[in-house]
Structure formats: structure tokens, C-alpha cells
Specification:
This protein has 223 residues and is mainly β. The chain has one domain: Putative cyclase (Glucose Oxidase, domain 1), CATH 3.50.30. 9% of the residues lie in helices and 25% in strands. It is built from three helices and ten strands. The strands form two sheets. Strands 4-8-7-6-5-9-10 form a seven-stranded mixed β-barrel. It is globular, with a radius of gyration of 18 Å. It starts with 17 loop residues before the first strand and ends with a strand. About 2% of the residues have low confidence.
Length: 223
């Protein structure tokens, strides 16, 4: 959601717009087979305890999350092998028309600078899929052809507005593999429903978990 209208005293300097593109972990859809997020209250002030204390249980691919090469590649890079600056970069939110997969023609023609992120706002956003707790298997994904073009243009990160870049049921995961084999990070489960298309700075810092093949993130777009 945008925070551009907040009082200036509560707003970081030099940014006119801030969009939180993360989904609350307790409301995000869960990919079939992943662990359900849960929050167990161990101490509660409304129960007479002196403080609040909770314990969390979740999968590393819960909600809005990053996939690292170790997710699919033997010997692939894990979370700790990336500098924190790897998760802060220029980004473009690309509006994708129609209800089919993201095709090469969806990539902006004027977008030529390497090292940026491409975040695809598709029919998933128009259907508000990231706001529905139940999993939908007919989400829009990336085509292999568009993925190869992302590689050719030296994109640093690819994001999608649902919880997988690959078509549901394709267990060979060609889009994941093509991106991760080229050290392109994957940001899944982003909420772009209220985000205008255009250029931003993306910040998507993962949890600091050694050996992690993926991690939930708090992702924001600023400009």
C-alpha cells in the first residue's frame, strides 16, 4: 500500500512515494506442500501475563520471498553469499495485459540498462490473488521465452505477483532453473495491486539465515 500521503514528519527524506509490496504472512496463500504459517502465543498480557511473547512456524518460501540458486542447483549460492546491497536495486514495474503467461513482448522496449529488477504486474493483481488465502492454480506465470530475454538483458532480479514464476504443474520448473542458473534472484508473492507501473528503487532484504535457499522478505518500492 502507498504511504505517500503521510505527514512529512513521518516520511523518509527524499522519497515522494513508498509502496509496501509484501503480503502479511498470516494472510498469504500457501503453495501446495509448503508449511502453513502459524503464530503461537506463549505469553499474553490479555491473559494476565506480564508481557507478550509469540513463536513463529513457517516455511522459507512463505509469503513474499526470495529464491536463491541453492533452491534448485547443487552447490548454488545461498543467502549468506550475497552482500546486503544485492537486495537494493533499480526496478521497473511492468504492466502485462491479458490473461496468459508473460511473453517477450511484455518486456519494455526502452529498458536496456543491466543490473535492474523487472517486476511483472499481471492479471494476478487484477484478480487480487495475493489477497486471497486460498491457493489458485490458474495464476499467470512467466514464459520460458520471456525468461531467456531477461537473461539476455542481464536483469538482476525477476519478480511476479503470485507465489511462483513457473506454471503450476510443470515440475521441471524451467523458469526457475533458467533464472537461477544465471544468478538472477527470484522475488515471488509480491503485492502490486496498488502500484502504478514505472520505475522505482526496490528494497527486499531477506532474513539473515545461514544456508538458506530462500527467505521471506519485507519488500518495498520507493521513488
Amino acid at each position: 500500500m502507498p504511504y505517500a500521503s503521510e505527514a512529512a514528519s513521518n516520511k523518509p527524506q527524499n522519497f515522494n512515494e513508498i509502496y509496501d509490496i509484501s503480503v502479511p504472512l498470516n494472510k498469504a496463500p500457501i503453495y501446495p506442500g509448503d508449511r502453513q504459517f502459524s503464530q503461537e502465543w506463549m505469553e499474553r498480557m490479555d491473559k494476565g501475563d506480564g508481557y507478550n511473547l509469540s513463536a513463529l512456524s513457517l516455511g522459507s518460501h512463505a509469503g513474499t520471498h526470495l529464491d536463491f540458486p541453492a533452491h534448485l542447483l547443487e552447490g548454488g549460492k545461498r543467502q549468506e553469499e550475497y552482500h546486503p546491497g544485492s537486495f537494493i536495486m533499480p526496478a521497473e514495474v511492468v504492466c502485462v495485459p491479458g490473461d496468459g503467461p508473460v511473453l517477450p513482448g511484455s518486456l519494455p522496449e526502452s529498458w536496456t540498462e543491466s543490473g535492474q529488477a523487472l517486476l511483472f504486474k499481471t492479471g494476478n493483481s487484477r484478480r487480487n490473488l495475493m489477497h486471497q488465502a486460498s491457493f489458485s492454480d490458474d495464476f499467470i506465470s512467466l514464459s520460458v521465452q520471456a525468461t531467456r530475454l531477461c537473461v539476455a538483458r542481464e536483469v538482476r532480479l525477476v519478480g511476479i505477483d503470485y507465489i511462483s514464476v513457473d506454471e503450476y504443474g510443470d515440475n521441471s520448473l524451467p523458469v526457475h532453473r533458467t533464472l537461477l542458473e544465471n544468478d538472477i534472484l527470484i522475488l515471488e508473492g509480491i503485492d502490486l495491486a496498488a502500484v502504478p507501473c514505472g520505475r522505482y528503487t526496490l528494497i527486499c532484504l531477506p532474513l539473515k539465515i545461514e544456508g538458506a535457499e530462500a527467505s521471506p522478505v519485507r519488500a518495498v518500492l520507493i521513488r
